Structures are given as structure tokens and as C-alpha cells.
Amino acid sequence: MDERIREHARTLVDWSARIEAGDDVVLSVAEGAHELAVAVAEELGVRDANLVTLYGSSEVDRAYTRAHSGEFDEDPEYERALYEHADAVLRLGGGRNTTEGADVPAEKRQAKGRARQGIREARMDTDWVSTVHPTRALAQQAGMSYAEYQEFVYDAVLRDWEELADEMATMKELLDEGSEVRIVKEDTDLTMSIEGRTAVNSAASVAYDSHNLPSGEVFTAPHATEGEVFFDVPMTINSQRVRNVHLTFEDGEVVDFAAEQNEDAIAEVLDTDEGARRLGELGIGMNRGIDRFTDSILFDEKMGDTVHLAVGRAYESNFPEGSEGEANDSAVHVDMITDMSEDSRMEIDGEVVQRNGTFRWEDGFEG
Amino acid sequence: MDERIREHARTLVDWSARIEAGDDVVLSVAEGAHELAVAVAEELGVRDANLVTLYGSSEVDRAYTRAHSGEFDEDPEYERALYEHADAVLRLGGGRNTTEGADVPAEKRQAKGRARQGIREARMDTDWVSTVHPTRALAQQAGMSYAEYQEFVYDAVLRDWEELADEMATMKELLDEGSEVRIVKEDTDLTMSIEGRTAVNSAASVAYDSHNLPSGEVFTAPHATEGEVFFDVPMTINSQRVRNVHLTFEDGEVVDFAAEQNEDAIAEVLDTDEGARRLGELGIGMNRGIDRFTDSILFDEKMGDTVHLAVGRAYESNFPEGSEGEANDSAVHVDMITDMSEDSRMEIDGEVVQRNGTFRWEDGFEG
Q: Is residue A364 part of a domain?
């Protein structure tokens, strides 16, 4: 077995999920993630954890969901009980076809999602971590060769997380102490209040309230957004490719929008509900192991020298105890990314903290 | 998809497991059983059943079990809760290497089995059914080409089960009314009491208390066994090939034994505990869709014109209500098969019911 797969497994089990003896672990394995599953199972065995392995097959899921009438039972007790009694859920993505769900009617997928809210909440109450095993399908989605894509994934995943967490702590401190963030670049001049919010140092570990491997971003929940912003990183929303989105905010709400490709997809998102026109997240990508966009939000939004904003649902982890109810609520959370590596700056309370892809504490920073 | 796979899925879901709307179904998928899993998921969707899919990977299991210290937690609650709340468990066998467990230390495998007795019982309390998807590894084990092996499996599985159940009902009636079975062939003259026992018509359906697809046997729990028996069908016991076993019984117990190959494997079985020297099962194979031995007990013991005897644990389904405690108890249940197609006869209370592979109710029977 490729030694990088073993390292990936150790990182997931130790750094990310902090598995200990006796932990009840659910391991969910996508069709193409078999090898990583074997490595993870070995690490779980070494730690004397317990193991239940699920088959996260998109072909099984497609066949089942399409054939179903669409009247899904609410939170079947046997599945909810599994998660309610579990300590950790490790999800290994990595399918054999990233568009396997393309012919599942949207209304059935949505109905299934609604019916399973209790199960989802039970799963989110565990120490859950999502990661991906590099597959040929993901390489194709990224427009890369398989070998090149493997390198890409392991560069992103196999980092010195302790060191990155320390660096991100500096960013978190600036955000926690600040009250206003401003982003300036081409077609962009946006200000957001972050008063009364707590930033999350998303260091790819449940110990940091971070549930993705790789991660490497600091995020908070902005409000009172004003101005315009241009997202130059392409993305896929509900299976539609969207390019060059431009949003205009007044009083915290999107009042105007445009996109060069599939503008309708943006319209659909913004029309979902009231919260869909407000920001739920401001994230600052700081993982420089991710050096290119691969059309996968798990990687793209963590890329060093990018900033992403999400319209829709905010994370309660950004709200100090007692104020969680203030989080922006919505059925959607759609991330959009802008490149901050050139001709750009981010300010906190009027002070530049990042210019042209260099942070204030780094060599070569030009305030 | 091969239409036979769809028929297999329909037979499993309808005839065998009797799945209805709202049933909570656990589907366990071996590494090589993906295609059958997709077909079964579709059938479950059509019936609006609920679905949790487990990955029954022998490589994952091997890696985990080998790495574990061997001190397994007893019946982890999350897994037990899954089965306790489930209505049915469908296990799709069909690995990619039938000897994947070869380097898992026996003591760890046994310790794991002992620690999971409550989980096993919870699973057996559901409407569970085991079947196999034909894989290249199973074809190899059977000494057959892949295409030939697929034919073999579907011939065994895709039967007119209603018709076979009717024929087996005749055999069950003879056994239920009779009190002594005698088997006579080369090196074999064995009598067993079946007084006070109820035969099971194992027609591959939970409606018949039968949990294997394919099935096609009628079995009971004999006692007071006397005489000698020769098993001419090769078998594998604890990964060891065993040939031509000869057992001698007195007062219901094995008092002498011999085998032409790996006699030690038989000795080990018989020495397990007190119940291991007594019979737990007499089974009469009646599935003529199975026309050859393939070194897989799921198929071999159901083959038409064979009889199998198991030393060890008896099934409670053979004991009328209130007398279940009388069932022979043992940690083992090892089946051994003898060919009844030539120069042989089976008698019930002195009357011949099968001679040279022909039953009393069939054309060509020579009483």
C-alpha cells in the first residue's frame, strides 16, 4: 500500500478525529475509497476502537432514491440509533463518478434530505470528519492526471497541522478583536461587521471544531454587509457550472446580482428563503498545500490566498454562548470564492492584514 | 445490468425476505457484490422500505482484527441498536478473495465472535437472509470459469420456490410423522431418532423459517444416533481441506473417527466441547438446481440427492414450543455431506423413502 494512504489514515484518526480506545466509530466508505478504508480500519484496530462500516455508494443511493415513491419515512429509528450511540463518524469520499446523482429527481433528493433531519443532527452531534480518497473520477473533475491529482490531495492533507493551526490562531485573534472587515480588489469593495462574533480556527480537527480533512481556513459570520464583490473562481451549484458572479449588498442583503454563466443558478439560490440573501460565512483560506482550483469545494475554499463568502445558513460555532439564535438561518449555504493573490487587500478596522496574497506577519508584506 | 441480477434481487426481497413498505432494512454488501447491491437497493426503493447499507469487506475486517489487541468491547451499543431496531438484514456475500482471513490469528477471530454474541443474536432476531453474488473468487474456489459459475449460481437461486416448497412439504410431513431415520450406503449404516422433533421446510424464505438463498433442504435435529457414516463429499473446515470422513456413533456420541486428509481438523472440532460429539442436524438436500459440489456449504448442503449431518449445535426451530432447551448445545456446528445418488437408501421407520437419488413420490422410484 502507498505509504501516503497510511499517513492519510493516521492523520484522520489521530489529528482530526482524536480516536481513543473504546470509541464507537462509524466509517462510511465511498465506492472508490476502499484502500483508504483498509488503512483507516487498521488504525482503528491499533487503537482498540469499535468499528461499524457503511457503504457510501452513490450508485446504490441513486438506484434506491429513484425507485422510491418520494414519501420517505421520517428518521428511521434504526439508523438514528446507530448515530446517537456513536462517538465518531468518519466519512471517506471518493466516488467513481462525480455525476452519479445527475438523474435523481431533485424533489426526491430534497424530500429524502428533509425526512432525515434528525439523523443528520445525530451524526453532526458526533466527532464527525469528512475526507476524500483520491480517485480517477475526482482527478477528471479537477482536469488532472490521476498521479498528479494524488499528489495534489496528499499535499493538501498531509500538512504540519499543528504549525498551520498556530498560524491560523493569529488570524483568528485579529478577527476576534476586530469589528469590521473590508475586502478590496477588482470590482470588489465590500465591508462587513464581525462585531460580537467568534472566529473558528478550522484546523482539520474536532479539537478545533473543524470537521473537514483537509481544512485550513479561519471563518466567521459577518453581518451588515455593504458594497460589491466579484467571485472569479468558477464553481458548480446544483450541478451547474457558474462563472464570474458579482453581488451587490445593501443593509446586509443582496440587492443585485450577475453571473457570466448560469446566472439562473444564483437566482434560484437567492430566492430560496429570506436568509439566502444574507451572508452566513466569511472564510479566509490559509492552506497553501492547495495550490490550484479543482472544482471541489472541500479543497477550493481552503486554498491559501483566497477568501470565500457563503450566502445562507451561518454556523452556530461563530456565536458566543447564549447568542446562537442570532445565526442567519436558511435552507442553503452556498460558498463563492475570490482570489486574493494579486491586486487585492483585506483590512480589519482600517488596517491592512493581507495584501496581494501576503499576510501581515509574513516576509514580504507591504502594508 | 444482467437481467439475472435483477431477478436475484427480486427473489431475495420478495420471496426470501418478504419486504414491505416502511420495513427497516440493513443491507450488507461484500466487496464483490456491488452490482447485486444496486439491484437490491432499487427493489427496496420500489417497495418504499428504509435502507442502511453496510460494507462487508473482508479486507477491512482483516486489517481491523489483526491490528486490534484482541480485547474486544462486548456488544458495542451503537451496532446492537442498529440491529435491534431493524426489521430485516440482507447479507450479500461475494468476496474478491475467499481466503482473505487466512492470516487473521484464530484467537482474535474467536475473541471477536465471543464479544459480539448479543449483536449476533439481535441480527438473528430479524428477518435475515444470506445470499451470494457470483464473483470470480467464488468461481475459482469452485474450480469453474466465471461464466459457468454465474450459470451455476442462478440455476440454484432462480427456482420456482413455491413448487419446491410444496415438494419439500411432503418430505417434512414424512419426517414429522416418523420416529427413526436410517441411512444405508457404502461404509454407512446409521440410525437416528427424530421422535419429538419438528422438521423445517427450508424454502429460502423467512416465511418458512429459512434464511439462505439458495436453500432447498428439509432438516431436523436427530438424537440417539447409532452406527457408522461415511462422508464422501470434500469440505473445508477452518481453512483446511478434509476428505472422506468416517464417524462411528454409540449412544448418540461419536466414539471413533477417521479422515483421509487433515484428520486433525475433525479431531479439533469434536474436542471443542461436549455437544460437539453429538449430532445437531440431519438435512436432506432437495435443490436439483445445484448439480455439483463447489466447496461452498451454502450450495453444497442443499444439492439434490445429498444428505448432510452436522455435529454440534442444533437449531431451536426443530424443537416444538416449550422444548427448545433440549436442543444440543455447542460452540460449533460443522456440516458434513454424503452423496445419496447411487447405491444408497434412506428409510423412515423401516420404509424406504429415497433410493439411489429418487424419492418415493417420483417417477422411477424402486421401493
A: no
Of B101, B129, B157, which marks where a domain is finished?
B157
Q: Is B57–A85 a contact, with Cβ atoms under 8 angstroms apart?
A: no
The answer to whether B183 and B200 have CB atoms below 8 angstroms apart is no
Q: Is residue B335 located within the same domain as residue B314?
A: yes
The answer, for A86 touching chain B at a CB cutoff of 8 Å, is yes
* Cβ pair A50, B79 in contact under 8 A: yes
For residue A242, report the phi and psi dihedrals to the nearest 5 degrees.
-125, 135
Give the closest residue to A183 by CA, choosing from A133, A149, A148, A222: A222
Give pLDDT tens digits for A201-233: 999 999 999 999 999 999 999 999 999 999 999
Residues B149 and B8 grouped into a single domain: yes
Q: For strands A24-30 and A180-185, give the pairing.
A: unpaired
Claim to verify: residue A172 and residue A303 sit in the same structural domain: yes
Q: Which of B34, B44, B50 to mutate to test the interface with A (most CBs of A within 10 A)?
A: B50
**SS3 of B60, please?**
helix
Q: Residue A209 and residue A324: Cα distance in Å, rounded?
A: 15
Contacts of B71 in chain A (CB under 8 A): 48
- Nearest chain B CA: its distance from A112 CA (Å): 11
Query: Whole-angstrom Cα distance, residue A355 to residue B222?
Result: 85
Last residue of a domain, one of B118, B141, B157: B157
pLDDT tens digit string along B147-172? 999 999 999 999 999 999 999 999 99
Q: Are residues A186 and A268 in the same domain?
A: yes
ipTM for the assembly: 0.91
| Distance in angstroms (rounded) separating the CA atoms of residues A34 and B299 | 29
Single pTM value for the model: 0.92
Residue B365 lies in a domain: no
Q: Is A179 within a domain?
A: yes
Q: Does A65 touch chain B (CB under 8 A)?
A: yes
B286 pLDDT tier (thresholds 50, 70, 90): very high
Q: What residues in B contact A77, CB-CB < 8 Å?
A: 24, 85
B81·A76 Cβ contact <8 A:
no
pLDDT higher than threshold 90 for residue B303: yes
User: Does A367 reside within a domain?
Assistant: no
B219 grid coordinates: 432438516
Q: Domain residues for B11?
A: 3-157
* pLDDT at position A324 over 80: no
Binning pLDDT at 50, 70 and 90, where does residue B173 land?
Answer: very high
Q: What is the DSSP letter of B261?
A: B
Q: Which of B358-364's residues contact partners 24+ apart within 8 Å by CB, and which partners?
A: B359/B170, B359/B171, B361/B167, B361/B170
Asked if the Cβ–Cβ distance from A63 to B42 is below 8 Å, we say yes
Query: B54 is written with which cell numbers?
Result: 453496510
Q: Which chain A residues have a beta carbon less than 8 Å from that of B65?
A: 45
Residues A152 and A194 occupy one common structural domain: no
Long-range contacts of A195-201 (CB under 8 A, 24+ apart): A196/A320, A196/A323, A197/A221, A197/A222, A197/A223, A197/A318, A197/A319, A198/A317, A198/A318, A198/A319, A198/A320, A199/A171, A199/A172, A199/A175, A199/A318, A200/A172, A200/A315, A200/A317, A200/A318, A201/A165, A201/A168, A201/A169, A201/A171, A201/A172
Same domain, A25 and A112: yes
Q: What is the reported pLDDT for A64?
A: 98
Tally the domains of chain A: 2
The CATH number of whichever domain residue A120 belongs to comes to: 3.40.1830.10
d(CA A109, CA A58): 12
